[in-house]
Amino acid sequence: MTLCLYECLRAVGLQHHYARFTSVGVCRTAHISVLTMEDYPLLGIHTMEDRTRLFQLVQFVKTLDLEGLGYDDDDDYHYSHGGRVEGSTIVDSSFCHDSDSIFNDEDGNGAAVNNIIASTFARPSHVRRRLDFSNETSDHHQRLSHPVVHVNMRYARYEESIRKKGSATSVQHQYRPKPKPANVTSNTFNHKPLGHKDRKRTTRKKTLYTEMDTDGCMCKPTPVYEAKRTAGYNYGLPMSTPPAQCKQARQAEEQRIKVCVRKRPLTCTESRQREADVVTTPGGECVIVHEVKEAVDLSQYILQHKFYFDQVFGEKSSNEEVYHQTAYPLVQHMLKGGKVTCFAYGQTGAGKTHTMLGSPAIPGLYALAVQDIFAHLSATHSYQLVFVSFFEIYCGQLYDLLDHRKRLFAREDGQKVVHISGLRDVRVDSVSSLLEVKQGRRTNSSTSTPNKVFEVWSVMTQVISQGTAERTQGMSGVNPLSSRSHALLQIQLRDSNQQIAGRMWFVDLAGSERASDAKEPDRQSRMEGAEINQSLLALKECIRSLDQEQSHTPFRQSKLTQVLKDSFVGDSMTCMIANISPGHTATEHTLNTLRYADRVKELKRQGGLRGRRRNRGKTAASPNQNLFSSTTGSTVSSRGKSPPKKPKLTRQSDSFGPTTPTTRSPVRSAFLCSTPKNTKCGEEANARRRGEIRLEHISPVRGWLRTGDKRHQRNEADELGGGRTGNDSLKTMERQSVSQQSPRAVLESGHQQSPRAVLVSGQPKDKRVWKVFLKIF
Ligand SMILES: Nc1ncnc2c1ncn2[C@@H]1O[C@H](COP(=O)(O)OP(=O)(O)OP(=O)(O)O)[C@@H](O)[C@H]1O
User: Fold this and answer.
1) CB atoms < 10 A from the CB of 608, how many?
2) Could you report the per-residue pLDDT of 538-591, keeping only the tens digit for each?
């Protein structure tokens, strides 16, 4: 039993168009696969329903390996000339007279088709044309003599339209990617006319690539275009620039921020699923993503996205190689007393943990860094001590991974230095390693043997394995053991006075993918995803803010940036390793990761950080002072750009209701308690401040009436963050006094909202307003 055109059309309920199809030259099932939407009217497909059906059929036929299934070119031919297909009854009540004409045609010479064309489809001559499948050898078409439309030229048409649009630059057809694997489910069609083919679908899908590659009829060379990015997408910064063009800038920057990309190989699972590798890493500084796209006419084309970074590691790079290019310079800087940070960023399953932690057989950056630190200390006979702490940030909370997930709190002191209270520091005292080194058997990492590396690894794992086991993990759509938290490993060097003599952060960030990618997106995983995204956004905002020389850097937007404050100020060095997956199903995430990294790289080339540091150096001596000035100073951006927008945490309305015009509070902020006490003190305060207080809106939270004054919010945040200023007592007085006003007094003071409103604050705003008014008047 073979596949024929009529069966296909009947499967989607388009069998009544069969004659029309054959009349214009669509006589075989294979012809369907090359139909485009432009051909639909020619085939008599006008209604949206029919268009959808035909579209589905075209998609389905495209996924079929017709030759592999024993597709016989003549089948449709015989079919259309009255041949009765083995095992199937083609008589269909909906097929009207056309079918009779066709199937009762005994001579099989195409007379029926010609009759139909002549009688049923008597159309104007410009419509009466037939589609040409020029690659066919059958003489079937030679019997028809209508004008020809070249539908197989759709690739050329598309290329032409792209050129006209100027949205992409055409390049040579040099890259011929494997087409996307077919993703056909058994319920694609309800009627199951092709049921006898079902058992072959699996093999059909698997052989799709090769068949289409070798079959010139089925697969035209896929056009390749180079993505031409516009200024809007990258915040107006120049796009990824080749290294040659920015050599000077790089030298000037002295690699304070280094952005690298690491591509991992396809995993066994991905190979089994026949995922295509869409990432290439030509040279050591360029990475190209070949994105398979589909045009509106359903033709496929390739869009190449090219990025340049300080270093690009291909799938064959080892952890040691990555370490020497990324973390090793940071270790050297730390040993000189600097503060350094190494981020691993990327989608879940992209290889962040593999890079950072590795395994006993393949130690990651943690172990290699500690090994070098010990090697240095022993070589210089230093008495500095190495302390390690390890904690995670999960859903905005800090948990100590070395202390049974004890809850931690990040607080700022009066000097604006962030401390993590309760964090356990473990002194790493690799006696055996150090002894070995002191005996001259170890000098540095480059001369160490794998056994020695393994030894340091085992020392580190005594500390880290406990923490890693405690880390929050979950199942994502990509990785069954996906990290759902940011893991931060801190390595500190301390002198004999316990003063910090160098600090290194290793940050294994949580997967950067969207929350919806979780395999079973329940509430918890969505919350996790939202939190992860928010902290990554905050990280980006901090970097962006530094780049734009903003007077305020929003460290406090997330715990991650708050904890990593040191990484953004002073004489720090940072390295970001963007990990990417090579599979075509991860293309979108790969591009997102690369764009994020590209953004970080481009801003450093703009000299944003450097310029900022320079400015800071003029006004302040220490990083802490710099930070202070950056957060409280009134410096306006020299570029005149607007400050970054903070994500809105709560919705604030400017108007409370149609009858309650609101006014902004003056600089002095005030609270109003929902249940004021009529004390004398309160009345006095009320009388004094009656003319000053302007309420903006009522917050249902804890019954406070709040003002929208930013300074007030900042003061409040300071208090929450643990910092207290000299005005604290004054503010407390203010709060007390204002909170004790009577409702009547508030009304008299010109405000149209009553504290009574707070009592009904759980209701919609308009209702609340009306209740207040009813109560009063
Ligand atoms: N460079 C590499 N070479 C070989 N295998 C790798 C490489 N990078 C990652 N892998 C493998 O890919 C899988 C996923 O890697 P890993 O767990 O490091 O991802 P991840 O980015 O940390 O994911 P998540 O964010 O979900 O924790 C692991 O099985 C790991 O062994």
Assistant:
1) 22
2) 887 776 666 565 566 677 778 888 888 777 777 778 888 999 999 988 888 899
- pLDDT for 605 equals 53
- Which atom, in ligand 1's list, is nearest to the CA of 478? 26
Alpha-carbon distance of 105 to 107, in angstroms, equals: 6
* Sheet strands (E) in 245-285: 257-263, 279-280
- Residue 352 CA to ligand 1 center (angstroms) comes to 6
Q: 304-317 b/e with 16+ CB inside 10 Å = b?
A: bbbbbbbbbbbeeb
Residue 570 in marked binding region: no
Does the structure show a pLDDT above 90 at 195?
no
> What pLDDT shows up at residue 532?
81
Please enumerate in sequence order all residues whose Cβ is within 8 A of that of 431, keeping only pairs 6 or more positions apart, or say none: none
Residue nearest to atom 26 of ligand 1 (CA): 482
Predicted local confidence at residue 581, as pLDDT: 92
Structure tokens at 199: 């058992």
380 is in an annotated binding site: no
Give the ligand 1 atom nearest the CA of 354: 18
State the pLDDT at residue 487.
Answer: 86
Three-class secondary structure of residue 89 per DSSP: coil
618 is in an annotated binding site: no
Q: How far apart are the first and last CA of the chain?
A: 86
Residue 344 falls in which region: left (phi positive, over 0), alpha (psi -120 to 50) or beta: beta
Please give the Cα distance from 744 to 754 (Å, whole number).
8
Q: Which of 262, 263, 264, 325 to mutate to test the pocket of ligand 1 (most atoms within 8 A of CB)?
A: 264
Which numbered atom of ligand 1 lies nearest the CA of 509?
Answer: 25
Q: Which residue minimizes the CA distance to atom 25 of ligand 1?
A: 348
pLDDT in the model for residue 479:
52
Alpha helices in 548-656 (DSSP H): 559-563, 587-605, 608-619, 623-632
Average pLDDT over residues 458-464: 64
Residues with CB under 6 A from ligand 1: 264-265, 267, 346, 348-354, 476, 479, 482-483, 511, 579
Atom of ligand 1 nearest to the CA of 357: 18
Residue of higher predicted confidence among 354 and 162: 354
pLDDT at residue 531, as a whole number: 79
List, as one string, the DSSP characters of 337-373. Answer: T-EEEEEEEESTTSSHHHHHTB-SSSB-HHHHHHHHH
Please report the domains of the chain, with CATH numbers, ordered by start residue: 5-171+184-194 (no CATH), 229-632 (3.40.850.10), 680-776 (no CATH)
Report how far residue 636's alpha carbon sits from residue 536's, in angstroms, rounded to the nearest whole number: 26
Summarize pLDDT for 85-113 with one digit per residue, the tens.
333 333 333 333 333 333 333 344 444 33
CB neighbours of 732 closer than 8 A, spacing ≥ 6? Answer: none
Q: Which residue has the higher pLDDT, 155 or 340?
A: 340
| CA–CA separation, 613 and 615 (whole Å) | 5
d(CA 71, CA 62): 14
What's the rounded Cα separation, in Å, for the pair 425 and 391? 10
Per-residue model confidence as pLDDT tens digits over 717-730: 443 333 333 344 33
**pLDDT over threshold 60, residue 61:** yes
Question: Nearest C-alpha to atom 8 of ligand 1 is from which residue?
Answer: 351
